[in-house]
Write a structure and sequence with these properties.
Strand content: 15-25%
Shape: rod-shaped
Radius of gyration: 25 Å
Structural class: alpha+beta
Strand order of the largest sheet: 1-2-3
Number of helices: 2
Length: about 100
Amino acid sequence: MERSRARIGLIVTLGVAAFGVAACQPHRMPPRSGPPAAGACPPPGLAALEGRPESVLAGLTLARPHRIIHPGDAVTMDYAPDRVNFEIDESGTIAAVRCY
């Protein structure tokens, strides 16, 4: 009786340890198939805005999701491959136009 309890305890301990090791393995997303959701990103016309003042964005009408990111802004880490991100530097200039 005592021996079977010890064996059950050992099996449970090994099972918990195996689960713990498996839970620590990195999760890899499968590669995305097919073309990007909304074509080339950033669109060639928007990529040309790098180095221009932020004020040029006020006159634009964008047909895709976008956000304007200023220094120190809190930004979510969600991945949206068709969203255009305008990164503004400390001087108010468009430092980068990227999609992520």
